[in-house]
Amino acid sequence: MGASLPIPNRVARHRGAFQRRLPAVTVAVTAAVGIGVDRWLAGPMSGWLALGASAWLVWLVLQWLVRRGLVRFHGHPALPWLDTGLVLLSVGCLAGGWHHLCWSAVGPREIARYARDELRPVRMRARIAERPTGIPRRDSVFLTDRDPPQRTVCLVDCLSLESATESIPVSGRARLDAQGDLTRLAVGDEVEITGSFARPRGASNPGGFDYRAFLRSLGVHCTIRCTESEDVRLVQSGGAFWRRWQGALRKSAENLLARHLSAETAPVGIALLLGTRTSIPEELRNAFTESGTMHILAISGANVGILAGLLWGVARIFQLGRRGTAGLILAGVCAYSFLADAQPPVLRAVLMVVAVVSGQAWHRCGPLANGLALAVLGLLAWNPTHLFDTGAQLSFLAVAALLWAPTLVVEWRRGTGGPDPLEELERSVRLGARVRGWFTDHARQAAITLAAVWIFTLPLTVARFHLVSPIGFLANLILGPLSVAVLWAGYLLLTLGLLIPWVGMIFGPLFDFGLRLMIRLVENAAAVPGGHLYLPGPGEGWLAGFYLLLIPVLFGVPHGWWRRLGWRAILVWCVLGMVHAVWPRDRGELRCTFLSVGHGVGVLVELPNGRTLLYDLGQMNNGMQARLSLQNALWDRGRAWIDAVVISHSDVDHFNGIPGLTRRIGVGQVFVHSSFLDFDELPVRQTVDELAREQVPLRIVWQGDHIPLDDQVSVEVLHPARGRKYASDNASSLVLAIEYRGQKILLTGDVEGRGLQSLLAQEPVTSRVLLAPHHGSRAANPVELAEWARPQVVIVSGSHRDGRGGLHRIYGPDCRVVSTHDHGAITCVIGRDGDLRVEGFRTGPLARLAPRADQPESPTTNR
Q1: 8 — pLDDT class (breaks 50, 70, 90)
Q2: CA–CA separation, 706 and 616 (whole Å)
Q3: What is the pTM of this model?
Q4: Does 860 or 626 have the greater pLDDT score?
Q5: Count of CB atoms situated within 10 Å of the CB of 755
Q6: Does residue 122 register a pLDDT over 90?
Q7: Of 728, 803, 818, 732, residue with least CA distance to 770
Q8: Do 730 and 751 contact (CB within 8 A), yes or no?
Q9: Alpha-carbon span 489 to 483, nearest angstrom
Q10: Rounded CA gap, 349 and 333, in Å?
């Protein structure tokens, strides 16, 4: 940077060692800043081009003026800083422009220009862009025989839109999601797809996963759904021979592992070595997550580092020398990346290994921080959106912690006064003491290193996954050496077993035994009481502040008083974050959030005194998705407890999210009607059994009962009557009326038929907000209900298939009919003054209603 300009010695003396010795770090930070600015400001591409060109132009003019002697600050101390700043500015502009092309630019023939938010029928030709992945159906009592045993997902490059009269050339990538098995297809195959396509949907609930942003980071702006595998027809086999050879090699590797491993260990072994986790049972996946060892299942830098260590050992055995060792390691990790489909975690680790090892062959051993920065630059050049990927952030934070750990070990030894001379003497003369001391020292170093990784990664882990696993500290100390041995056995099985099949008889049992032992340790760690805790995470502002304080304290601030001041600032920042987390929010308001869960129901009620009520939680055939929506909404509000759950009736789309909820969210009690307790239905029996295991009280309520949660709020059961039985489950739905400050919200479940007739036979209930019965079904929403309830806002909890257009005619022009499918989660907020606001998560304000004059301002007190 400005090598033609002489740098005075006094300037060089004022430059820190960090800047002199780690130039790649400065460049990587600058590139990251440019990418971040483009993400948050979303400026035009012309702005980056103009700013970058201006920086280069000024730099070139400055160079020319200095060389010609036309300026008089030759040798001025500010000149090299100006020179460097201009070049770094151009680097930031280059990175920002590259991110703009990958994130925001859409070509004129892009398939996304034809897609809409709603599903539309489509017939197109496309080329398979990645290996199709089969996802087996989850074992669950809530599933029906109509659900296919497997679905297949992959990315496709769109070629043309087909119709009866013309073919329209298109470009761009789409994500194909087809029911059935399509794993027979290979990368490069040309297919004809008949299905439905649309733009990906963004986050629909507070704290929810932004699926649209995730696909956008992959360069995908469109999704295609097929209901049968026959909807995807092979037109022509093709593609590069090396991609087809890669697919065949990977298939052979999967078959090799399945042949030598048991049914229990095969899914874990395939995940460890090849990165495919779709076959791991949900219970085992949860065990890895809750034990703090989920990183073991993900192909990451640790896996590639362990492979590099194995290759280094092989090179030492055969005495390959420095260049031979470097060549073997580079060839091995690159071949492994090829077999693992160059997944982003593998790519990150390979770039790091290449940056560090490649200099070894020529005796140029640069600092590890420089290697880390080069890996960051390579990853951002591959895909700049990886800067915002949680996995990438955790990986680089962990490596940064490893860079700091040796300093921490040295400081710890200095603080303890160094080794005891008597112990040193004993080690020198006794083999047992020497071995014991070796294990003690390495265990201590491992614990300190793991503590450093925790300090760096724990805040981000809690913010993104809302999980703290204290047991993970001990589990990782035990599993660390074990995972090295297990992975070595797996790599030897994979490498030698493909070349010499009979070798699998040696390493296969070793790998299988190691996996069994690992699974048992993980399951036992996850089952330790208090070993893990789900809780709300810190906000983005606190998270940014923590790392902005931590990184300079560890790597930039010199030792002494400034370092101690930095640690105190971090401590104060953590205390402020904890105070903010427990500080009461919106006290005096009632918030009723109708979650967007597709064809299902989930209503979260936050009462003025801080307590919470949940009315139903389920989604047709995917209760786990409904449960995740509720968990994220609760954590987004800083809550980790539900005081009461009301299950309206025994249709699975109203309660299949309850099982598993009590493991992550505390539940005080559950209310049902007696008609729910039909133990001949397996889903009901499983739900009740889980509530009993978690010691959650189950209570029976009926018409006229009140649920006492808040003295200012009336929560009354309107239907069904005590002991009343109906022919259908829907007719037996529990109907709740929630009233606060003269505003009433009516939750109706799926009430219809004779149950609805019984409800309408009661005195009219004037409500402001009504949950449309049975997801907006015409039969469950007659004109009589509209006249009986007189709502001003009707909320339909359903999917795109649930009809809601005719409800406008039923409820009249003065009533606003809104759907969770269109607006995302819909929140009704009743303030202290009785003012009611209705807001959509994706669309913003929907309605604002003042208290009715004919309603009493003071609410009915719970009985």
Answers
A1: very low
A2: 17
A3: 0.87
A4: 626
A5: 28
A6: yes
A7: 818
A8: yes
A9: 10
A10: 9
In the numeric block, the tokens 């074990």 are attached to 482
Cis peptide before 720 (omega within 30 of 0): yes
Report percent pLDDT > 70 for the chain: 88
Instruction: Return the closest-CA partner of residue 637 out of 500, 541, 535.
Output: 535
Task: Decide if 643 contacts 613 (C-beta within 8 A).
Answer: yes
Final residue belonging to a domain, choices 239, 263, 291: 239
Number of domains comprising the chain? 6
Paired with 47 in beta bridges are none
Paired residues of 157 in beta bridges: 127, 173
SS3 readout for 305-343: HHHHHHHHHHHHHCCCHHHHHHHHHHHHHHHHHHHCCCC
In this prediction, residue 360 carries a pLDDT of 67
HEC readout, 247-264:
HHHHHHHHHHHHHHCCCC
Residues 414 and 312 in one domain: no
Does residue 191 share a domain with residue 73?
no
Residues 474 and 409 grouped into a single domain: no
Question: Among candidates 658, 832, 824, 812, which has minimal Cα distance to 741?
Answer: 832
pLDDT-derived band at 418 (thresholds 50, 70, 90) equals low
**β-pair partners for 319:** none
Identify the domain containing residue 566 by its residue range.
540-582
667: its two tokens: 């539940």
97, HSE (Cβ side, Cα atoms, 13 Å): 15
Token pair recorded at residue 375? 């890996």
- Taking alpha carbons only, the member of 216, 232, 199, 238 closest to residue 125 is 232
Q: Is 158 within a domain?
A: yes
Asked whether 656 and 142 are in contact (CB, 8 A), the reply is: yes
Q: Residue 829's CB: how many other CB atoms inside 10 A?
A: 17
Chain-centroid distance, C-alpha 745: 33
What is the C-alpha separation between 724 and 762, in angstroms, rounded? 15
pLDDT higher than 80, residue 615:
yes
Least confident of 70-79, 130-139, 629-638, 704-713: 70-79
Q: CA nearest 848: which of 822, 826, 830? A: 830
Shared-domain flag, residues 381 and 416: no
Determine the Cα angle at 615 with ends 831 and 863, to 5°: 70
Query: Which residues are registered as beta bridge partners of 826?
Result: 594, 840
Residue 605's pLDDT band (cuts 50, 70, 90): very high
Q: Which residue has the tokens 């998560």?
A: 841
Is 761 within the bounds of a domain? yes
Q: What is the mean pLDDT of residues 94-120?
A: 91
Residue 559 has pLDDT above 70, yes or no: no
The amino acid present at 257, given as its one-letter code, is L
Clarify whether residues 304 and 417 are in a common domain. no
Burial class (CB in 10 A: 0-12, 13-18, 19+), 320: middle
In a domain, 671, yes or no: yes
Query: Domain check: are 380 and 512 in the same one?
Result: yes
480 and 516 together in one domain: yes
Q: What does DSSP say about strands 232-236 and 150-162: parallel, antiparallel, or unpaired?
A: unpaired
The string of pLDDT tens digits covering residues 203-232 is 999 999 999 999 999 999 999 999 998 999
Rounded Cα distance between 474 and 477, Å, is 5
Q: Which two tokens stand for residue 576?
A: 């402020």
Q: How far apart are CA 491 and CA 511, in angstroms?
A: 9
Domain boundary among 440, 467, 494: 467
CATH code for position 232: 2.40.50
> According to the model, what pLDDT value does residue 16 have?
43
Going by C-alpha positions, the residue among 756, 715, 764 that lies closest to residue 732 is: 756
Report the distance separating Cα 423 and Cα 498, nearest Å: 49
| Mean pLDDT computed over 27-32 | 93
Distance CA 369, CA 372 (A): 5
Residue 339: both structure tokens together: 């077999």
Residue 861 lies in a domain: no
Q: How confident is the model at residue 381 (pLDDT cuts 50, 70, 90)?
A: very high
